[in-house]
Fold each of these.
Amino acid sequence: MNEEYIKQVEKELFLSRKEKKDVMRDLNEVFASALEHGETEQQVIQRLGTPKEFADSIAEQFGIDNNNSKRQKGIISALVAFLMAAVAFSIYAVTRLGKALERTIGQADATTNIQIQGALGIDVSQITLAVGFSGAMIAILLIIRTIGKNRR
Amino acid sequence: MNNGYVQQFKKGSLEMILLCLIGRKETYGYEIMTELNNSASVLGYAKEGTIYPILYRLQEAGLIKCRLAPAAANGGSKKYYSLTEKGGDVLNELILFWSSYESCVNGFIESYQQAEAPK
């Protein structure tokens, strides 16, 4: 039970790796000392509050707004996903444009029906398109989740 | 009595109390907690969630230092806290301030009580 509690605190805590390690060690000592003095894990957990409450009170002392850090992390991930989508889409657009030119025969203005089959069976542009779409989806999901957390 | 004003007093004095406890002799988390619960019941029930954040802050400020020692009983380790030189200086300043603060507040209380008395 206490392993589960400690794991949850770790998840809720946004500190540097070293600070986090210290807090985790101390939390282990809290449980060990209390058990040594005849307390039950349940008693300790009751005293500590929820993992989130405990993590927030610790983070506050390090001058960090834990909820804000969590929000920032969400926003950054959303941005990365969004960027990935944008890059994938532009690669797709460029390759499509390139293809369209390749496919024109005799430099005619319009594309002909003659298709040049790629050496590979799968179309690279389709992969980039898929990456683009999934990136955009992830970005949207993350934004929704981050906004949802803000309201709480 | 557990209103906001009292909370403010407690908040302000807990750091000094912890410095006193740690300055008296090297001590560890659970001992600090039981000490507070045994002899400072007016402060309310001490919890790790209150004590540890303050310990982190005092350590950050360089007022206390700690060493890890293996703990035989639980197979893990125990963190023993002690005052740094800076911590000792700050505590002495705080104690000086506290006594003038106390007499200042007491002065107001006395003047209030004297004014009340004739009624």
Amino acid sequence: MIGRYAHHLCVALGLLGLINLPAQAAEACDLAAGQKLFETRCTTCHSLAEHKVGPKLGGVFGRKAGSAPGFTYTPTLEQAGFTWNTEKLDAFLSGPMTFLPGTAMAFGGLRQAVDRQALTCFLSQQGPHS
Amino acid sequence: MAEHENGAKGVSRRKFLHGAGVGAVAVAGAGVMTQATAASGDKCKTVGCDYDVVVIGGGFAGVTAARDSRKNGYKTLLLEARSRLGGRTFTSEFDGHKVEMGGTWIHQAQPFVWAEKERYGLEVLETPVSGAVLDKEEYVVRVGDTTHTLSGEQLLPLYEALDSFYAEARQVWDRPYDAQYTWNEITRRDKRTAQQRLDELTLNPVQRVAIDSFVGATAHAPLDQASYVDMLRYWALSGWNLQGFNDAVVRYKLKDGTVGLINKMIEDGKPEVRLSTPVKKIEDKGDHTVVTTQKGEKIVAASVIIALPMNVLPNLEFSPALDPALIEAGKQKHSGKGIKFYIKARGGFTKLAKVTAMADSNYPVNLVMAHYVSDDYTLFVAFGNDPSKVDIFDIKAVQSILEPLFPGIQVESTHGYEWTLDPYSLGTYASYKPDWFEKYYAHFQKDRGRIFFGQGDHGEGWRGCIDGAIAAGGKAAQRTKEMLG
């Protein structure tokens, strides 16, 4: 129930223009490129809808790091203490193990800023039920 | 016993209750065990323990050890750090095809894995997989800035070169499962690198690249970091000839993936499995052991089987302390530290053929082989000895690496997994480094007290391969049984 209210609150705030709705962020980026990046570089270990080797990524934006129910994180992620947003995801994706030493995500990172931008943009559009 | 009880006190009430119940239960017969549908119905045979056997590491070694231990009648728990089983095997999907991100090929010359394939009636596929008959075989060899395309009789000098590289294999590994039998021959060459062996042979540049590529992909390291004698071991294991070697290491893969075999083994043995449970500490208290997870849970067991990659061993705490040689070797890391990835491409190569490209240790990829072949496109599997030389997810970068090998090729997508970055593997398939036989061989896979070592990286035979992992796990389970009675 709390989650549902929180969702309503977010929508309401979004309508009032108090927070950035995902749709606004999407205007500035290439969703198709982001989706392709997701499909080619993330789906070995991740899905939007369910936990695989890594946690589900639908709804990752705005989610507290290391908090998706039902997934067991490394202590590093659990204790990260931040909420995923464009800036944090960009930093993480540029080198997961540099940004968060101790993560178990075996990924060297997206070296191109434009790729990170497209991917974070795509992820920002994926709600928890996508 | 007093120490045991003290050790168990800090654990949990449930464990005491569990232990208390054991006294009232007769030792379960094998029939009872196999009828059990859930591992939770088992009772630990050892008073005060949660489990008779805790296996740490859920790759093929650990899964085998856990299956066998449970079938031996022991209450068994398998602990795996990742959220999946399989360890350095990982069946994934790429472009609608099942692909193996890690260990892939098996063969009847690999006795332990082939026995499992037969036991469970699993099918294999021949690679390259194709709906068409692939009767053309073509090799592309990159020498400096020149690309040579060879087929048929043109390949004979390459075969001869490989024969000459491995010429001492019979002498050095007359019994490939018994290093002691030729110990002096092994240690006499222990310090030699594969590069030193290559340098002493009189070969033309194409032959040199062929060996560099072939041996480099076997070691998954540049030749100057690969042990010459350990490379000879592979040749001996496959019958001391090229055909046998090629068949053994790149011909058959499991149709339903390595995960298919893992699942069969788990279904068969039904050990209790806990995923996403990294272990922090392993203590041998004399008459029992305590395993502490990273989350702080303590598990009391009669015995522990370590089925972890040698490179991650230094990251766990042991009490009594681990043999320092194991820490030293683990920090130094085995030679397998390269990259393996898949490439979907069209054009630039002969269609419907078994295409292989070879390049030397300095090139970002050293061996590229057709893996799935259709009239429309080919999926290649590529091996490189240094992950920093290629961003496997950057299609443009991969295109620029493949273009000189296959002029006109169009790379469409790539797929891979960076094992060297994964904290639970810290490397790829293991082979030993130069100088390791004398320094470490006697230290590897040595049980201590209630802690048994069943690491796939060690042991005689096909260590470093799926087969060696199954062998290591099974042997460790057997030794554990001998101790537990």
